[in-house]
Design brief:
The protein is of the alpha+beta class and 435 residues long. It is built from 18 helices and 8 strands.
Amino acid sequence: MLGLLLSSVNIPGHTLAAWLLKNIDGLLNHLGLEHHRTVEEIIYVAVIVAVAFLLGWAIRIGVLWLSRKLVKWRKSVIGAELNKQRVLIKCSYIVTPLVLMALLPFAFETGSPVLHVLMVVVWVYFVLVMILAINSIISFAWGRYDAKENTKNLPLAGIRNLFIGIVWIVGVIIIGSIILDKSPAVLLTGLGAFAAALMLIFKDSILGFVASVQLSQNDMLRIGDWIVVPSTIANGIVVDMSLTAVKVQNWDNTIVTLPPYTLVSTSFQNWRGMSDSGWRLISRSVIFDVDSVAPADSAMLDKVSTLPGMKAFIDKVTASGQFYDPGVAVVNGSIATNLGLLRAYMCDYLLNHPLVAKDQQILVRIMTPDANGMPLQIYCYTTTAWTAYEAVQSEIFEHIAAVAPEFGLRLFNAPSGHDVASLMEQTSQAQIQNK
């Protein structure tokens, strides 16, 4: 195998090698040392290694200087990114093993075991630097694509890591074939016997890759999405995704790490649709005491008609008898009960609120009564900004609590220790007065 690799490399080096051997012979003659073949080989190898590393260092310095000049002159973003990720520097490392391959064979006789060992080492070194160079190019290409073309912020880091892993696997197989002097095909054939063990070792990576492809292909997850995974404590923004981990930054700035396969095998909630729409749903209820719900008499109608929007609603229903209006954002209620009047008032209140969406569904509706009372639900959409959302939601329910007494309605509160003590005190005073 190594012989085939050696024969496939055609690097001109005969002239330089002859010049080096001639100067080494001259140095030995000048020092008066015997021309021993082993001594000449040792000196030649040392000189070749020094020349190779010196030449590689000089080329790296030259490439770095030239790339910086070009970036400064042309103001190239790509060039700046290449320098930042040291792609050209990592690629220049292949110069050293190439020089060693070209010059080492001239110092040894054909079939020399020392030459064979040295060339094996050089070839392993060459494959390693090639792996580093190819992976640096893959990382650079992925970074450029992710920055410019990946407008949806799809989690593609897992795919990048997969390609890097494939390069390393291929490189390790080639290195093994060089060391064992076998064809890579032979190693791959023998590798089939360890397939089960390899699948067990790389189980997380394989499942992570499959999950990453599914998440990306179906656009289920993007970097920056707010997700909630009910089976875990994850509730926050996706900050990174690889073959083996999805990192979610929770609202308390803690980081939760999940296997990608978890998001495919179980359900999770993605709030991206809410963010993209620009509106967030308010769906919350306030409970009224059933005993406070009563028919609306003329006195009640006169009292609430002074509230904003109520006179027009009462006049409309009185004239037409219609209290239901179809549409997604309309005033609906009734003049039959105080709770129906409150529903109409809150519909008008929401329609005139500057931060409530008028093109989205607005409902003020009665939910199923329970042991606590009769729930009145507010269903509408407002801004997605968290602080503003909470402020609008709080304002709406504060207003309901403040205006409910105008309609003769009482909010439900479970009895507290203070209520029990007050009742006992009132009972005691009544008993004393009766005596």
